[in-house]
Amino acid sequence: MAKKLIKSLAFMIPLASLYSFADTDIFTVMDDPATAKSDFEGNVLAGYNAQSGNTRKSNLSSSTTLTWFQKTNAYSIWGEADNSSADDRRNSEKYQAGARSRNNLNDDNYIFTQGNWLSDRYNGYHSRNTLTGGYGRQVFKGPIHNLRLEAGPGVRHDEYYGGGRSTSALAYGAALYAYQLTDNTKFIQGLSILATGDATISSETGLNVDMNDHLSLKLAYNVTWNENPPKSAPKNTDTKTSLSLVYRM
User: Fold this and answer.
1) What CATH number does the domain located at 2-248 have?
2) Which residues contact 180 (CB under 8 A, 6 or more apart)?
3) Beta bridge partners of 75
4) Residues 6+ apart with CB under 8 A from 4
5) pLDDT tens across 150-203, in order?
């Protein structure tokens, strides 16, 4: 049993950047080139767990975020895959990928563009493509409080598993707040809103606890609320709780 536990934990260790906090649904990575400590930061996460016997369950997940920094610019790409099954029946299948650029206008203001592709079969989306751009402001940038706000227009194209498609203009807004509770504990709250004729809101509440210079534990609670979900997946709210062992490069 101990060997199985060690192997399970090994699969869950991500190679994570200190500044990569939030889930890719929100993508509030701290990509400020003014505070970057190197020209490149990246993280990779791969996880697998399986149960057999009276109940058969399995889950396979992976994600990565890669960011390149210049003097006033930052460029990021990211991707995620998540599959789950129970008793030999698939019950979750989600893939997404995207890219982002940021250009600092001065110490506190910047402009950005970002695009994202999502396929989430069991939430009704054959594909969901969004493209947004706009203005961001670094409200707080310090060792205790860090707050970033951004907003702008965009466009969204949805194709549904139940049939049909739609394209609409949208308004985008996002925020990331981080608070250093103690020398080794940080609270994180991220939020993003995609508003069209309806609204999709994603939130991540997290706690990051440093165990030493390289290892930390991250506990996160993610909520996605869809005002008008696809007919094949009618529930408005999805939630996910995760606990990760993080290795900082």
Assistant:
1) 2.40.160.40
2) 143, 144, 145, 186
3) 68, 101
4) none
5) 999 999 998 888 788 889 899 999 998 989 999 899 998 999 998 887 788 989
